[in-house]
Amino acid sequence: MSGWHPSTMRSVALLAYAGVFACLKIWVFTGSSLIDTCIFMAVLASIFFATTDNVAPWASRTVLAAILLFVLPVVGLANTFYLDVTTQVAIYAVLALGLNIVVGLAGLLDLGFIAFFALGAYLWAILGSTQASMFLPGSFPLPAEAFFLVLPIGVGVAALAGILLGLPVLRLRGDYLAIVTLGFGEMVRILANNLDKPVNITNGPQGIAGIAQPLNGLAIALATDAVPEYKWQALIYYFFVLCLIGCAILVNRRLDASRIGRAWVAIREDEIAAQAMGIPLVATKLIAFATGAAMAGGVGVLFAAKQTYVSPESFDFNQSIAVLAMIVLGGLGSIRGAVLGAAAVTLLNLQVLKVLSAWLNTMRADGVEFLGFSFANLPAQFEPSKYERLIFGIILIIMMLYRPQGLVPAKRKNIGIDVDSSTGKPGNQA
Amino acid sequence: MTPLLTITGLSKRFGGLVAVHDVTFDVKEREIASVIGPNGAGKTTFFNLLTGIFRADAGEIRFRGRNLLGLRPDQIAAAGVARTFQNIRLFGAMTTLENVLVGQHANIATSYLDALLRNRAFLQRERAAIERGRFLLDYVQLGSKAAEIAHNLSYGEQRKLEIARALAANPALVLLDEPSAGMNPRETGEMRDLIHRIRDELGISVVLIEHDMPLVMSVSDRVIVLDHGEKLCEGLPAEIRSNPRVVEAYLGRSVAAKLAKAHDALVEVTQ
Amino acid sequence: MLTDMLLLLPTTLIDGLVLGLIYASIALGYTMVYGVLGLINFAHSEVFMVGAIVAIEVLIYGLAGTGLHPLIQLVVAIAVGGLAAGFLAVAIERVAYRPLRVRNAPRLVPLITTIGVSLFLQDSVRFVESLFGQFIRPFPSFPFFNRQIVLSETVFISNRTLAIIVLAVTLLAGLYYMVHRTRLGKAMRAVALDQKTSQLMGINVNKVIATTFFIGGVAGGVAGVLYALQFGRMDPFSGFIPGIKAFTAAVLGGIGSVEGAVLGGVLLGILEVVLGTYIPMWTNNAIGTEYKDIIAFSILILILIFRPNGLVGRAYAEKV
Fold first, then answer.
1. Is residue B73 part of a domain?
2. B177 partner at 20 to 30 Å CA-CA among B37, B148, B165, C15?
């Protein structure tokens, strides 16, 4: 073994790790109990390990392809709970990657980011359900396949909204942006909540249900007794969101390694010096704002289709903060950090708090006593699943005070391109 | 020969404070001019007016025949005037090479789409930019530090990097704000050579604000003295050195008078 | 309809003034901290909320049944709530902001921290309050405050309104005096201009900043009690929106200035109530009162576009 290169050692270890946990997940821990979920997280973690710098590219590609294209679909078809969780995580990861451009790279604190997500979601919710016939001529819902047309439109609408909002406010001192975007986020939510009159556009607080699902025909065609339609549909969404997250990562990486990304970071580091070096501030910030918004809008369209139901609740201030907490936890400006943060916060929010809540509720119902304290006396309002703000608050405070660079700090690569060997391969010799 | 930069009647006030008042002078092609004056004389404000960070109340700034007044700092940089800052303002989290690449921002023609597609135009331009960046880092003797995070450079290296970053913008004129501040004599000597090379080899005009008189006197073609925001005088280094008004401005009238007396006394004694 | 509107006008204006004075009192905390540190203290809205909740608890558990005059009870509750809010603000500064100031963190870092503190406090208070049952706390009812004073045939003013106006004006006048006429105020303005030089001049910068937080916190806490008195309740999440609006008021008046905060607060309060009352009437409820928040945010965006330094503010220039 001593002759092996350390990177080869690590690669073999990675393959072994991913293989063992994938097999365990597929054949042994197939349920959805706590231990099953932990094994599932261990499988997801292999994606994280596969993307570190110090494993060989072949190993990293093998593991990524095997996990994303084989293991997760197989596990998910057996138990759609996991497909739903993964899709949910990936949707938030795309949001986090969008916000990463705005906050992480360009240093613009956007506290109303979820508004752009809402725009995309409502766009498909309205057009893909009967809601549109309330105020538009023509026959609605649009055919499910119009989704593929509405997706780019959603991207465009959100980008446009980003530009329209950014144009006046990006000229201002940076910290005003935080409060204006916060106001904008609230405005969009209030509008969604109230635009059921005089013309019913959003159906108000009841939200919009019965949203068309794209490629539903395919899911029906694939359906068998063993694997019914809804599972195939879940798989279809999984692949959709995989494509979106791939796009989001690509956009992040490529822009980051171009003059545009460098200009963003320069503005974040020192606005005055950046401008004196020939970077037009407002235009460059607008590009960041619009790019981030576009990602949120696109994934919003998908969100509406996947949920088949949207309501204003899904787009409140907490959601904007959730996305911010994700990138702060992962590391501002860091792509792996954004995805890791999205996974951690989503799982915490979706799973851990809910499990804790359910657990406390059973203790209360059973009247368990602990150190003289009877759980039966626990007030009904005391529900851990509602304490997401506490968690976001703690994440934000602790990270900013003790580890502002995040769990996976962004690394400034030497440069994206190797000049000396013109193979076009990204060079990361430091 | 028409001058590169012509400044006429430039004025700026902040509330009641007159920071720069009616300053007129010009810079020729391939000239090194120094702006000196006591602290608070308005030197840095003057640079900030030239680079559009502050907007002048009155006057005119013509650069290669084009009026710079009212342009944004980035437009002025793109027009060919680059600068460094007195209190170093590097992009601390970026590498040394990236800092110089940012300096080239306006000269890289890559569009948003090029960057997304990572097409041949993008790669070509990026390679050219990196090559030029490496050249500039070598030029200021930072070639071996290309991958270093700017924040971790030593003070003298940071000053040099600021100059390389300014040169990266491909300027016809660079404004250096106290390039030798905080440097030891050896580093100051290197800085003098660098300023000469910038002019002689790259053909770029230089205006510097400097407190180190030996450096000013040895490097400048011409010296402009500012005091209380006004131009006190202007001339060859030798002329400035012997100008009693300059000594007065630096030391105050009474000290200057005493100094002159002491000088006379000394002359008497030695005779 | 026009006569209806005219009949409503005096009450609407008075309600607007009450809300505006409350906004102004909250805005002081934002504007003073922003003036001194250049930091938007998002947690200030929770300081406001805690002041109100402490006062309500004092009224319920401490003063109920004492038979004291309602006004005295109110003043005691305000004093306790205000002090609690002031100390909370100081504690927040000490634990969460000062370490960042010391290590000179990038701007974004303290700003994100204040948001974290804000969220943390919301749920912490919710946690503590839910241990005792309902976390939505109604303000104890005193028939005294509901009593109306008849000014004319159509214009009444309640004891509650009168009490709020008197207390808020006293608070604002006191603060104005403190910032403009005392040594402390002078020190605060010096620190706002240049921390390093102030330190060299013998000003204890940390102490001045802590005092600024304390005073802003007290004002916020008092405003919280008045707000709870006016609207009859307070819960852990009710600080947030008034907080943002008070910040809007501070920006509207000109951030960093006490007069600006008062002017902006009163203006925003009156605009909000007047528009919130009349727009539904004009549009036959097609556009309802729910839009009053949208009105406030639109005002914020418009001022920032057309008059970013506010109505009485000075321009801030960064040192280059």
1. no
2. B148
Write the residue in A172, A393, A404 that is nearest to C304 by C-beta: A172
Q: Which of C31, C113, C248, C272 is the mutation pick for testing A, counting most A CBs within 10 A? A: C113
Tell me how far apart the alpha carbons of residues B23 and B224 are, in angstroms, rounded to a whole number. 10
Residue A65 structural domain = 1-78
**SS3 assignment, position B16:** coil
Instruction: Give per-residue pLDDT as tens, A139-174.
Output: 888 888 899 999 999 999 999 999 999 988 888 777
User: Across the interface, do B74 and A281 touch by the CB < 8 Å criterion?
Assistant: yes
Please tell me which residue of chain A has the smallest CA distance to B127. Answer: A419
Q: Phi/psi zone of residue A185: left (φ > 0), alpha (ψ -120 to 50 degrees), beta?
A: alpha
Q: Is the pLDDT of residue A422 over 60?
A: no
pLDDT band at B71 (very low <50, low <70, confident <90, very high): very high
Per the CB < 8 A criterion, the answer to whether C25 and C219 are in contact is: yes
Is the same domain home to B112 and B189? Answer: yes
Task: Summarize the confidence of residues A305-323 as an average pLDDT.
Answer: 94
Is 60 exceeded by the pLDDT of residue A429? no
Q: Which residues of A touch B108 (CB under 8 A)?
A: 259
Q: Which residues contact A71 (CB under 8 A, 6 or more apart)?
A: A22, A25, A26, A43
Residue A428 lies in a domain: no
pLDDT digits (tens, 9 = 90+) for B146-204: 999 999 999 999 999 999 999 999 999 999 999 998 888 999 999 999 999 999 999 99
Asked whether residue A321 falls in the same domain as residue A268, the answer is: yes
Alpha-carbon span A382 to A405, nearest angstrom: 34
B-side interface with C, Cβ within 8 Å? 14, 44, 48, 53, 85
Residue A148 lies in a domain: yes
Sign of CA dihedral C159, C237, A394, A108: negative
Q: Are residues A204 and A260 in the same domain?
A: yes
Whether A410 maps to a domain, the answer reads no
ipTM score: 0.91
Q: What residue type is C125 in one-letter code?
A: V
Nearest chain C Cα to A377, which residue? C131
CATH number, domain containing residue A131: 1.10.3470
Please tell me which chains touch A, using 3 or more CB pairs under 8 Å as the contact test: B, C
Q: Note whether A90 and A71 are same-domain residues.
A: no
Is the predicted pLDDT of residue A117 greater than 70, yes or no? Answer: yes
Structural domain for B97, as ranges? 83-170+180-197
Whether the CB of C124 is below 8 Å from some CB of chain A: the reply is: yes
Give B6-25 pLDDT, tens digit per residue: 999 999 988 778 889 999 98
**Interchain CB distance below 8 Å, C301 and A194:** no
Same-domain status, B127 and B185: yes
B55: in domain = no
State the fold for domain C2-306: ABC transporter involved in vitamin B12 uptake, BtuC (1.10.3470)
Q: Which residues of B touch C197 (CB under 8 A)?
A: none
A210 touching C, CB under 8 A?
Answer: no
Are the beta carbons of A397 and C121 separated by less than 8 Å? no
**Average pLDDT, rounded, for chain C:** 89
* Predicted confidence (pLDDT) at residue C136 exceeds the cutoff of 70: yes
User: How many angstroms away from the CA of A242 is the closest CA of chain B?
Assistant: 19
* CB-count exposure of residue B193 (10 Å: 0-12, 13-18, 19+): exposed
